[in-house]
Amino acid sequence: MTRRSSLPLALLLTAVALSTLVVSVMPDPGQAARRDHKGVKTEVIRGLGVPDGTYPFVAAIGLADTSGGFKRQFCGGSLIAPSYVLTAAHCVVGAKSESIAVVVGQTILGSGQGQTRTLTGISIHPGFNQRSLNNDVAVLQLNAPILDITPAARVAAGDSSFDVSGTPLTVVGWGNTVPYSLHEQKNRYPKQLHQGSISVVGNSNCANQWHRVGFKKHFSPSVLLCTSARRFGSGDSGSPLFSAVGGTYVQVSLVSGGFVGTKKKVADFGPRLSDPAIATFITGVVGA
Question: Whose CB among 3, 123, 142, 264 lies 3.0–4.6 Å from 117's, allowing a Cys bridge?
Fold first, then answer.
């Protein structure tokens, strides 16, 4: 298969100069093609299968075929408004809108469930930094609204109620189930959407964990939300982290990066959607 020049990210995109330590969790197009050929996809590390219809707002992001259909999932996302899907900036940086398709409301990839859309635009946070993964947020504009699926709610700007250490969250996605893997042969990619229970890691604890592995200058826990170690798998990037509040799913972050290569417990992380600059960016694109 020819590699996509519009998505030039490697199997494990380096977040900083410590390329063997700090990585975002997105597979490359070659890996996406190989697991498509095998008929399998991805799941959250140590996750459980999600019953059909449980989280319909979750989106699968993949390549678009010549007719605008969906193929080869490589990242996750969430419907945040009828015409908009939220994902990680590193999933789509450098991509052309016409190269990507999105399916919303699908639990088992390739099952025909959900609604497929192509894109009319990609908006990446202007402060996105590929080295530190700060502001790792992008909003995808769909070619037609999805009106019969309730979007996920977003945490309000400045809301710190989900930042307390130990706060429980749910992560869902189609990421690699094998922890610590740096090699394709150690990956395992089932098709079914999976979910995992994780918890918030406090700023000081998170910073200490990253400092102990040598990542001192670029890691900014004040703008990154840290969560349980080693739960994000390759392929989970962009997938939502959320909490159920009064029957509403409130998204507080998304899958961005983590530490791989050893069994050291170093927190995973994603952008704080409550950060005023991030919240303002999303609202400016979506309009509400």
Answer: 142
